[in-house]
Structure formats: structure tokens, C-alpha cells
Write a structure and sequence with these properties.
The complex is a heterodimer of chains A (313) and B (295).
Chain A: H1 2-14, H2 16-19, H3 23-48, H4 55-72, H5 78-101, H6 105-125, H7 127-130, E1 143-144, E2 147-148, H8 152-174, H9 177-187, H10 189-194, H11 199-225, H12 235-248, H13 253-269, H14 274-291, H15 295-312
Antiparallel strand pairs in A: 1-2
Helix pairs in contact in A: 3-8, 3-11, 3-12, 3-13, 4-5, 4-6, 4-11, 5-6, 5-11, 8-11, 9-11, 12-13, 12-14, 12-15
Chain B: H1 5-36, H2 43-60, H3 65-86, H4 96-118, E1 133-136, E2 139-142, H5 143-165, H6 167-177, H7 179-184, H8 189-211, H9 221-236, H10 241-261, H11 264-281
Helix pairs in contact in B: 1-5, 1-8, 1-9, 1-10, 2-3, 2-8, 2-9, 3-8, 5-6, 5-8, 6-8, 9-10, 9-11, 10-11
The chains are: A mainly alpha (313), B mainly alpha (295).
Amino acid sequence: MKLAVALIAALALAALPLLTSSNYIIGIGVSALVFTVAAAALNLIYGFTGLLSFAQLGFWGIGGYATALTVVTFGGSFWLGLVWAALLNAVLALVVGFPTLRTNRHAFVIVTLTFALLVTLIARDWVDLTRGPLGIPNLPPPTAWGYEFVTTRQFYWIAWAFAVAMLAFLYALCSSRIGRTLIAIKQNEPLVRAQGIAPMPYKLASFALSAAITGAAGGVYCFYLRIIDPLFLDFYYMQTFLIIVIIGGAGSFWGVVVSGIALSALPEVLRFSADLRMIIYGLILVIAMFVMPSGIAGWLRDRTLVRLREALR
Amino acid sequence: MTIDAVYLVQLTLNGITLGLIYALIAVGLSLIFGVMEIINFAHGELLMLGAFAMTFALPVVGLLYWPALAAAILATMVIGLVIYELLLVRLKPDEFERSILVTLGLSIILIHVMQYVFTATPRLVDTQYGFEGVEIGSIRITWTRVIGAGAALAAFAGLYTVLRHSQFGRAMRAIAQNREAALMVGIRPLVVARNAVVLAAGLCGLAGAAISPLQLVTPYMGQFLLFKAFALVIIGGLGNIPGAIVAAVALGLVESWIGGFFEIAWQEAAVFVIMIVVLFVRPDGLFKRGGMRVG
């Protein structure tokens, strides 16, 4: 049932460029698709495994830079760049994750945050590689078998195919035995150990996978923007991913997908100045944490439980 | 490569000042973590508010350094109290992720409200001392740096005395070491937590006010300092106050030396590299953790 709805929604989204001629709306569509993938990746590590990772911002930036540099500096194709972005991020996640996950989740949060800020500094200061604050403008459009994805309309298909592939993969993962193990690790790690399952490989794998997917999403997004500079690592992106996950409901796959599509459109509907928008985001975050800490999906789940209990009475 | 001795001493002195200011931030974080087991993401913004308070207080008191410093500390303490009563009091000790997200939201709000109201234009702070300084031979160090370092040292001495010898501080250590036992002997966790937050906010305000004449004051200044303070708290051991101070001064020195001889990017990267190495070698931080230690 859910899958049928998702399939119809995916096909409806695929038809977006046929329904409107406005590049502005299609652009919002590209952002919504890419942000939803990044948020779903954050949901894998935070919502399922229960590890709050701020490193997603760093992976997003590294993914963008890796893809852009593969094309511009090393002369590879956009697709190869995405693969590199994913691989590089997975390796980095293992390197950062292994020492950090041995400690406690407090340390994990702080180290991932520091990692994200370090990536920002490198993007700004390692001028030989990243060209510093000037960034790398005029990224060439991706091509496939001689076809150039030049306009926003054409690029939308790439974002759509990417989002569908990644979300399908994440759904398969989260609804499998592995996904259930991850939730078990989040809820009761000693019990998982007692069942004879080592949590560490699962934690590392989910961190690496979420890093790889976030990196590829960053690669797609910077080719949509056609430029990458240190602003690509603005904390704004991390906040957006976090708010999508929290409002949707951490640990709920479909909740996060729905809120990803909905909330990516929201800042565009609220055409406030950037500062006012950030103030509203901050307020949403604080209020959501007190009013519905498990998001809309969690709130719905609680209501269903209450109804079931009443039916039993 | 020959190393100029004067240059090296100069770098060392600058490094100590920088390290002491890092320590003020890291100690506040450690204090709040020790008592409430939450990580305060809005801590850097307290520092920023302290610096802004200094920029507003100085012209009012005719550029006099000390009254402005006191006003800045008082202002951040009041803000700390408001933040505690409005938000932090609702957080329970086991809600670690929630505390992060709440204080992160608060930090976003504070930064952007300040930017919205006062714009992002960097402000220069001028004090009665201007750029005058003490000169020892050919080594020169400005008064604002000397006073900043001195005030930080005085603050640590004061903090040590308070935590070690007053009922106020003993209650904080008791909560940090054993919450249940502290409750049983009649210590009220909410009051102690409030005191800790206000104290930490005051230290942060001091840091902000002391750093404001040394660098440009912008709404974003707290973010990068806070990220270093986070790393320091990890290196020193979560909740370990002397550990945080030692790590902070050491980092100030290392950064200053690296900045003097290598590319600027390495200076910023140093803290992260050190933190990862420490986590590999000693996952609980360099200094063993065992409740909140003061000495």
C-alpha cells in the first residue's frame, strides 16, 4: 500500500517538468529531491542507528568538491565524480568513525561537528586545491551518451533518477534485517550484544553508507548550482537536513521523505530575508523539540497506539 | 631554518593569551556538562553576546576597560539565567541529543537575531589602552592581551576557590559526581544547575569581553571558538575542568607556533588532528574522567 503510494508519487514527481514551464518551480523540485536524499541519509545514521552526526555537512561539501574537482581538475566525467565522492566519503567516515565510535555518543556528536567545521576551513584555506573563497564556477553540464543535461528542466531528470535510486536503496536497507538491527542498537545496545550481534560493524557501516549517499547528493546539487565555493558548506544545509528529519520523525523512513519534499518548498513559499528565515528555522527547531520530539510520524504513531489501547478496553 | 628568539617568545606569549581565552570557554562547557550532562551549543553565542555587550558598554563609560568588562560579564550572566529558566530547565539529564538540538536552535536564533538587528559588519573595539603595550627588550605585548590573560587567570583562581571551598561549589561537584546521593543529602539539582549555567555564562562573557579588543566583533565570532572549545573538552576529558584548562593553553601555544611558521590552514586543522589522535590513544581524553574534578 505504502509502496504503491510511493510509486505513484515518484511518477507524479517525474512528470513535474511536463506540468510547468517555470524554471523556478523545477529548481525547487531539484532542491527538494536532493535535500530529501540527504535528509534520508541523516535519518539512517540518526533516526535508525541513533547517532547524531553533524559530519553530514562535511560529507555534503566533500562530495560536492570531489565531484567538481573530478570533472574540472582531473578531467573525469560527472558520473565518475559521483562515484569518487561516494567512495571518498565512505573511507573518511570509516577513518573518523572508528576511533570515535569506540567512545560514547557524546564524543561522537562533538567529533562529527568538529569534522564538519574542519572541512569548511579546508575548503576556504587550501587554495591550491579548492581555489579558496572564489570557488569553482562554470561547472560543465553532465553528459550521457552524447546527450547534454544543460537546462534545469533536463537536470531535473538526473536529480529525480538519483533520488529514486537512493531512496529505494535506503528503503530496502531500512526495512531489512539490517535496518531492524540498527533500530535495536539505538534502543538497547546491551541487549543487541547479548543476542550475539557486534554493534560496531553495523554502526560503522551505517555511518559510511550515510556519508557516501550524502556525498553523492552534494555532488548532484553542486552541478545543479553550477558553482561550488565554501558557502556550499554553510551550516544552513545541516540545519535544513536536521529540521527535515526532526519534523518528519527520526526513525520513520516515509515521515522523513514526506517532510523532505514539503519542507524544501517551505523556505521558497516564505520569501523572507535569509536572516529572518534562519530565525524561523531556529524557532521551529526549539519548539519542535519541546512539543513533538519524535516528529509528525512519531505523533501519528502515538495516536494510533492510543486508539488501539482504547479499542482493547 | 634559524628561529628568531624574540619572535618565538612573542609567539609563545600570544599563544598563552589565546589559550587562556579558549580555556574560559572550555571550562564553562565542562561545568555545564558536569552538572547537567548536556552540551551547550549556544555557548559560543554567549561569548559573542559578551563581546557585543563590551562594544556597547565601552562608549557609555568613556572607554574605561574595567567597568565595561564588569557590565559585559553581568549582561551575559543575566542572559544565561534567562536561557536556563526558559529552555534548559526543561531538559532532563538523559536527553543528550535533545539538549543539543534545543541549544543548536537557540544558537541559530541568537546569531541571526544579532545579524538582523546589528548587521554583519565587523566592529572594532577601542579601549582606554588603545594599542599601547608593555615592552620587554624587543618583545612587545599589548595591555589588552596582558589584562585578558590576567583576568582569565584570576577567574580560574576564583573558580577553584568557589568549587573547592564554598557550599555553592561543593553542591555542584556533588551533583556531578553522584546525582542520586546528592539528592538524598538535600541538594537541589535545579538550583545547582541554574548556578552552574549562570557561572559558565559569566566566564564566557569574560572571554568575549577580553577577546573583543583583540579581534573583530561579528555575530559569527562565537562559532569557530566554540568548535575549538568542544574539541578541547574532548581532549581534556568530558567534564574535567583542569584537563580542559591544560588542553586549552597547550592548544593556544601549538596554534600560535604553527601559525608563526607554517600555512594558516594548518593552524586551524591542528586542533582536529590532535583530537583524533587523542581519541585513538585515550578514548576518555588525556586526563582520566571521574566526576567533575577541580584539583
